[in-house]
Amino acid sequence: MPAFIARRLGLMVLTAFVLTFVVFFLTNLPPNLEKLARSEGSVRMSDEAVASWIVQNGHGGSVFSRYGQWLGVVPGWTATDDKGVARGRCFAAGSDPAAAPRFCGVLQGDWGHSTFFKKPVLPALAGMLGATGWLMLWVMIVMVPSALVIGVVSGMREGSRTDRVLSTFSIASTATPEYVSGVILVALLASPVTGLSPLLAEWGWIEGKTLFLGAASPDNISFWSFTLPVMTIALYGIGYIARMTRASMTEVMTAQYIRTARLKGVSFAQVVLRHALRNALIAPFTVIMLQFPWLLNGVVIVETLFNYKGFGWTLVQAAGNNDINLLLGCSVVAVFVVLVTQLVSDIGYVFLNPRIRLS
Amino acid sequence: MDTLSYTAILGRILAQFLPVWIALAATFALSFAFRRRLGLYGKLFDSPVGMIGFGIVMFWVFTALFADQIVTFDPYAQFSGMKNKPLGTVLKGAAEGQYSHFLLGGDHLARDVFSRMVMGARSVLSIAPPATLFAFMVGITLGVPAGYFGGRLDTTLSFIANLVLAFPVILLFYLLVTPEIRLTGIPVAMAAVLFLFPILFLTVLLNARFFTDPAKRNLYVGVVLLLGFWAYSGLAFNSDPLGVWRMDPNLLNVFVSVVFVNAPTVFRIVRGIVMDLKARDYVAAGQTRGEGPWYIMLWEILPNARGPLIVDFCLRIGYTTILLGTLGFFGLGVAPDSPDWGSTIDDGRKTLALFPHAAVAPAIALMSLVLGLNLLADGLREESLRD
Amino acid sequence: MADWDPSQPILEIDHLSISFFTRLREIPAVMDFSCTVMPGEAMGLVGESGCGKSTVALAVMRELGKTGRITGGSIRFKGRDLTTMGEEELRQIRGSEIAMIYQEPMASLNPAMKIGAQLAEVPMIHSGMGRAEAWRLARQIVADVRLPDPDRILNSYPHQLSGGQQQRIVIAMALMAKPALLILDEPTTALDVTVEAGIVDLVKDLAEKYGTSMLFISHNLGLVMDVCNRICVMYSGEAVETGNVAEVFDEMRHPYTQALFRSIPLPGADKNARPLISIPGNFPLPHERPQGCNFGPRCSYFQKGRCDAAEVPMVPVPGGDRHGTRCLRWDEIDWTAPPAARAVKEKAEIGPVVLRMEDLKKYYSVSGGAFGGGARKVVKANETLSFEAHEGETLAIVGESGCGKSTFAKVLMGLETATSGSIMLFDENVQSTPIQKRNTDTVSSVQMVFQNPFDTLNPSMTVGRQIIRALEIFKYGKTDAERQARMLELLDLVKLPRAFAERMPRQLSGGQKQRVGIARAFAGGAKVVVADEPVSALDVSVQAAVTDLLMDIQRENRTTLLFISHDLGIVRYLSDRVMVMYLGHVVEMGTTDQVFSPPYHPYTEALLSAVPIADTHVTRKRIVLEGDIPSAMNPPPGCPFQTRCRWKSQVPGGLCDREVPPVQVLEGGHQIKCHLSREVLEKMEPVIKIAAE
Ligand SMILES: Nc1ncnc2c1ncn2[C@@H]1O[C@H](COP(=O)(O)OP(=O)(O)O)[C@@H](O)[C@H]1O
Ligand code: SF4
Ligand code: SF4
Ligand SMILES: [Mg+2]
After folding, report:
1. How is chain B split into domains, by residue range?
2. What is the pLDDT of residues C183-235, one digit of tens each?
3. Which is nearest to C284 in space by CA: C518, C29, C533, C89?
4. Could you tell me where the DSSP H helices lie in chain B?
5. Residue C674: per-residue pLDDT
6. How much is the ipTM here?
7. Residue C477 in 3-state DSSP?
8. Boundaries of each ABC transmembrane type-1 domain copy (chain B) (predicted)?
9. pLDDT at res. C481
10. Residues contacting residue B227 through CB under 8 Å, at least 6 positions apart
11. Which residue intervals of B330-356 are DSSP H helices?
């Protein structure tokens, strides 16, 4: 087991290096740098000026060396610009290069400076991650239990009416990406002109113009502002996990050992709870874990749609404003989340499944 | 003339879809009559779920085909005074022969929402299925040998597939679908690699089967290579000498990215199925009579994997549709006035709280298509598992 | 259940009919089935697969799934009708009064629950026993089913046990509540013969100890004879003959029962002098049964206008012990007459040596742990294999699972290369030549027939296409037309209608698929054919036909047949020489007569004694082996068989534990790999004795 975890960890680190390098490479492509030069410098810069800006700001040289600097395993660049001011990766322009550390990369905790937020990437990102954390937490609380219940209930009696109703719901919800469900939910529940809200307002059942709020903010987490974003993300996941759980449950329910249990005289409820459930939940566990990367997508869409200033919103801003350091930071976080969930899913699978654990 | 009532709107929309209804009726009548002779496709008509799914999918397919007849207005045209107008609004000063109403209202640029939605079907359905098909070609061409040979090849390919899968899709799109990327030529390079796979696949397929009869083999492989590279030169490098095959750089960028995102999942599915099927006796029988590995992979194993692959193909078209919508939603890689559903939803959401119809119409369209594909896949799965 | 009188039947099935309702049609799986089990009786239910045995068993449990329904008749258990019983009442009977055991032991146990919990559950449900007490009872029953170290077993998960141990646990589970009736549906089919023998013994003893009645389902007549005192023969959803075992075996009164006995290889059968007689035709599908007698189209006593007129009722045979038959002509048939046409065949000449293996070794290196970590281990799949095979000869390779039979076949075919040693094929050394490097002639002259008929043909290619492909690969013929013609000839050769060329494999029955497999193997004029359990998955009546076909083609083409099998009956019937393998070693080799009579290798002796024989004139010495076959990953030191050998004490100085025994060559070239001295070997007694008729 430790050998297995060590191997997985090794693979994970390797993956992380490759992925961050790919992101670094893609964000630091020459056209991106030129765009950066024009937005930081001036739009009307000549091509030569752009080229020299790029070099003077440490974006020249081989991409490997720059990646190494960003990581913190290659000494940070230093240069002197046209005006004779000393510039470098590890110190503010004009200050003394000698006093600055030689290495300043991710490994040293320096994630660079965000041009969009006008402050270092790390603290900016940390705040945003906190905001998204709340959103994710509520999504998980809503999504996982309801999906498992739906899946188990519809899978335990395949073909029954309950099964048909719940399966139809699951299929419909997996067919509804976040940007569709978000739009429909807002139109139905958070629009002053359509859906329920005008009716409710007319009857005087609600105070404001709309039932739920069509926008959310991390500073004001309430039932009225969070319901729609959380539901929007959760809906897609519920359908997906419920379908996996149902498939797994129906398979288990037709297994011979379930028949054995029934023929031992175990009651239906006990068959489901004691014999089927554990076996049926092994497969969905993996699915739930691997759902995280997809949740990340949902988060980006929903935060954009509801203007919620969290991680996803930041990612969109970083990409839209060509904020290379911020985008790199976002990528590292995203990749890290994905890899950790994969690891947890692998280990959890082994733990849940005695057949693998004990062999 | 008055603003139309909801019933009237519904009636007029249904009437507008007339060519689709006729085509659907014909398809269903014919398929139902011959369903016992049509294999898996015929069995679909034994399953209500599958039939509903197939109906919805075909509805949109026919809509895409007959879009020119169905639309009431030019989907790009702007009409003064129609900005954000609600459903069923009369078009003031309609010219002779011009349609009289905006059935589903106008959007924020005073364009007809209904016509844009109909045209959107065409733009989505002309990308999603072919992109999925290419992803399958790539996934199959790599997944089959990985599953069959195992070992280092498998380890390497699986590692790469997992790398791609570890990227959150949106991040990948933000990195891969940008005007700057197009300047570097990366999409063309990716296309050059990805578009080779279908040619490679078909060549190996035919060679493995016909190498015992060189005359036939040379003919078939020759035709494939000729046609393949002709299309290849046009699609990947936009240099088809005859100018038949070409793809807009924007579109190429989107297309390639979608293929790139989908292929690893297909790879994993194919690999799993092959690992399961390669233990069968008929595979051993092939080996003991000295068949080459490619014949065994492509002619003995692959045909028996078709059930789950067809099911996944349907699901994956739906997923690709969602991805394309996501791209549109973030305004990546599409022309600003494109009628595709993702961008229309994005346009509409800015005025969502006050004028939801502009976003809701394409949203429902997209949802119904994906739902149809999911139901179809479910029906197919159910039927292929039976007997 | 106080009002039930123990002199009454415990189970009384009366005119039971069961149908499955599928979307297309109703499938009448069981029709008008009656049978009675008295307390303490063991009733055997035999018949070919698909005749409805399991359906009857499941109907008794009222477990027919969503599609199955009892359409007529009644099932009385201790006088109460089960067919009308409510769910809750049924639940109380299941597991406590009636228990069931079925084929796949691994699948019958919950993989995520400890054995102890699964066992203890039964008394906890049915008699409200406390947890601790239930575990104590479980421990006692586990000891009762003769499993070592019950405490460890109770705390393990199913996958940690071997197949034989799992089946013992399933039996223990069935016995937890001391049921009055035990239903066993092919309980040993998935197990090796030596393990099966142990289980059968156990079941018999326990049934006696607890006074349990049994309904024992099997396709194996010999096994039924070992276990049961009464038998019910089923054919196509009906009971065709029932009675006490000895009477039905010796004085059968139904043509199907008779045909069945004539088609199984009993001692005395011989491929040349007394060949088996297969039952012509195919088993009818439940919804395509003929008018009148179901067996009519295949019955040699069929009388037109009479047998196909109306449903045939079950009639009692006067003077019998509750003996009944479903045949109109039972009292007209001369049951003692020998079979009409037995085509006696000439013995084939044995030619020169075609294949010679010398000191062949095949080791695999596998990783130790489940996660790829851990030390690599060497699995010795084949250990110094040496033998010769001659032209026109049948060499049987006998052994249980894991003994290296299939590895040997793979090495010979060139799918794997040997670790060391040599394989001479027509004076050409092919030992280290993988199949891709062999020339077409070599490849086409060594071919294989596979075990599983459902797996041997590619399900998505027509039968004809698959044979033609083999011809293409073997470079037969110049044009497609030539190959097409040859393909049709091959279909003729295996006695299949030419129309089958256009069929898909799923439209063929198991036996027909196996014939196509044979045609494909002989497409390139194979000189050496490896048949890996070619008939073990087929029903007995089909087995005979396929075996005969194989023999005929062999005789004609003078092919060398390497016949891999675990079924000693069929091996004795058709082979010229036999090679017995255990854990990668050849433990005994000689002519069929040498191997089947003493002196034996201790393993062969046990194997012979384990195989049930459906003949009341045969007496077998019972030798039940302890434990299971060790894993090839972890073989015992010294003699591979020492963990289960009953002769070990006869070898002085614990030699068996330390040293791999040498091969002793006895007279006539009979080889035995054992430390036992000549004197001890000489003193061995025959396992099988046939009483004079
Ligand atoms: N669930 C089912 N649905 C339809 N047909 C079935 C089902 N179960 C069994 N049958 C049919 O009933 C017949 C008897 O089957 P079974 O009782 O399993 O036979 P056996 O145990 O003797 O091999 C077969 O023809 C089989 O195809
Ligand atoms: S009734 Fe006729 S066909 Fe049927 S078994 Fe008896 S003799 Fe044969
Ligand atoms: S060598 Fe010893 S243990 Fe092995 S079979 Fe002979 S007597 Fe038994
Ligand atoms: Mg059965």
Report:
1. 6-124+340-386, 128-316
2. 999 888 878 888 888 888 888 888 888 889 999 999 889 899 989 999 999 99
3. C29
4. 6-16, 18-33, 39-43, 48-65, 67-70, 113-125, 128-149, 151-166, 169-176, 179-184, 186-194, 196-210, 214-237, 249-277, 281-288, 293-295, 306-329, 341-349, 357-385
5. 92
6. 0.87
7. coil
8. 121-377
9. 92
10. none
11. 341-349
Q: In angstroms, rounded to a whole number, what is the distance separating the alpha carbons of residues A228 and A187?
A: 11
Amino acid sitting at position B275: M
Are the Cβ atoms of B342 and A179 closer than 8 angstroms? yes
The whole-angstrom distance between B212's CA and the closest CA on chain C is 6
Strands C577-582 and B101-102: unpaired
Tens of pLDDT along C430-488? 777 777 778 888 888 889 998 888 889 999 899 999 999 999 988 888 888 999 999 99
Complete DSSP assignment for C116-135: HHHHHHHHHHHS---HHHHH
HSE-up of B145 (CA within 13 Å, CB side)? 14
Residues of chain A contacting C100 with CB distance shorter than 8 Å: 263
Burial classification of residue A321, based on how many CB atoms lie within 10 Å of its CB (0-12 exposed, 13-18 middle, 19 or more buried): middle
Give the torsion sign (CA, C325, C326, C330, C336).
Answer: negative
DSSP string over C76-93: EETTEEGGG--HHHHHHH
**How many angstroms separate the CA atoms of A315 and A330, rounded?**
6
What is the rounded distance in angstroms from the CA atom of residue C573 to the CA atom of residue C547? 10
User: A120 forms bridges with which residues in the sheet?
Assistant: A113
| Strand partners for C19 | C28, C69
Ligand 2: residue of C328, C331, C335 to mutate (most ligand atoms within 8 A of CB) is C328
Residue whose pair of structure tokens reads 């196996």 in the numeric block: C514
* Neighboring chain B residues of A22 at a CB cutoff of 8 Å: 163
CA–CA separation, C436 and C433 (whole Å): 8
- Mean pLDDT over the full length of chain B: 89
Model confidence at C298: pLDDT above 50: yes
> What does the alpha-carbon distance between residue C527 and residue C339 come to, in Å, rounded to a whole number?
34
Q: Which element (helix H / strand E) includes A332?
A: helix A324-352
**Residue C206: Cβ within 10 Å count:** 20
CB C630 within 8 A of CB C636: yes
Q: What is the pLDDT of residue C138?
A: 93
Closest atom of ligand 1 to C285 CA is 25
Residue C622 token pair: 């019972």
The CA angle B226-B232-B238, to the nearest 5 degrees, is 130
Alpha carbon distance C405, B31 (integer Å): 51
Structure tokens at B225: 């290579």
| C604 shares contact with chain B (CB less than 8 Å) | no
Closest residue by Cα to residue A12 from B271, C371, B159: B159
Question: CATH 1.10.3720.10: which residues of chain A?
Answer: 122-358
The tokens for B286 are 């092939």
Name the CATH superfamily for A122-358: MetI-like (1.10.3720.10)
Q: Over range C359-377, report the average pLDDT.
A: 67
Q: How many CB atoms within 10 Å of residue A120? A: 16
- Inform me whether the C-beta atom of residue C23 falls under 8 Å from chain A C-beta atoms: no
Confidence of residue C370 (pLDDT cuts 50, 70, 90): very low
d(CA B137, CA B131): 10
Inter-axis angle of helices A277-305 and A311-320, to 10 degrees?
Answer: 50
Q: What gap in Å lies between CA C159 and CA A121, rounded to an integer? A: 52
Residue C243: beta bridge partners? C231
For residues C265, C268, C274, C276, the Cα torsion angle rounded to the nearest 10 degrees is -10
Please report which ligand is nearest the Cα atom of C649.
3
Q: What is the number of residues in chain A?
A: 359
DSSP track, C227-270 = H-SEEEEEETTEEEEEEEHHHHHHS--SHHHHHHHHHS--TT-B
